[in-house]
Write a structure and sequence with these properties.
alpha/beta, Rossmann fold, eight-stranded mixed β-sheet, 8 strands, 30% helix, globular
Length: 228
């Protein structure tokens, strides 16, 4: 991945345009998306990147009793969401493999070291991002990209009643454990290059991450306790 390109991503006005630029440079033939939801991201990627020969779509599309996040909607809503995702990506049906289930349940159907890019946008809790990164890294080719969304500087991305979002800093610590370089990109994106020969480094291209210690959060980011 071209370092100059990564630094140029700071000028992209949105997440989608950032990914347009990244995919144009990377030119992947195989890609997986963990957390497809209604299929908008998948449809855009497939439409704009005809060189992608196989696109894996991983998502339970189901109400999960142990997942405390706003997107954990009622079962009947997930039926509609799944149908919408399938309709939006139907034009590329021959290039898609749908894996309906949690990452740990279905990722074995992706051959090891077969993906040019894996994009994680599913369960952003500490448990979820741990499982997704650990399970998906072996699926990425040497030199390929393990990337994701919701690399949020604050754990309190949603209301305090929901489980915190801990993609950041966990993705950084994971990259350090695996001895891989990681980039903090604009629009709450991260990118890990699967190349241990480069060693661990964290490059804050977005220029917003600073000290990743959880106790260094700005006081306004911490939910206020209710008075008894």
């Amino acid at each position: 991945m071209n370092a100059a390109l990564l630094h140029s991503l700071k000028e992209t006005p949105s997440r989608l345009e950032l990914w347009d630029a990244l995919l144009q440079e990377a030119a992947p033939a195989t890609m997986a998306e963990v957390g497809v939801w209604k299929g908008d991201f998948a449809a855009r990627v497939l439409e704009r990147n005809p060189g992608i020969q196989r696109y894996y779509m991983l998502d339970p599309w189901a109400n999960l009793p142990d997942w405390n996040k706003p997107a954990n909607v009622a079962p009947e809503e997930f039926t509609e969401i799944y149908d919408e995702a399938m309709a939006k990506t139907a034009f590329a049906q021959s290039r898609i493999t749908v894996l309906r289930g949690r990452t740990k349940e279905v990722c074995h159907e992706i051959p090891d070291a077969s993906l040019d890019i894996a994009y994680i946008d599913g369960d952003h809790t500490l448990r979820g991002i741990t499982i997704d990164l650990v399970q998906m890294l072996p699926k990425v080719k040497p030199g390929g990209l393990l990337t994701g969304d919701d690399f949020s500087r604050t754990p309190w991305q949603h209301k305090a009643k929901f489980e915190p979002t801990l993609v950041c800093p966990f993705a950084v610590y994971f990259a350090e454990a695996m001895n891989l370089p990681i980039y903090g990109l604009p629009h709450k994106q991260f990118l890990i290059i699967n190349d241990p020969s480069r060693g661990f480094s964290f490059t804050d291209i977005a220029g917003i991450y600073g000290d990743l210690s959880l106790n260094k959060l700005h006081p306004d980011q911490v939910p206020k306790k209710k008075r008894l």
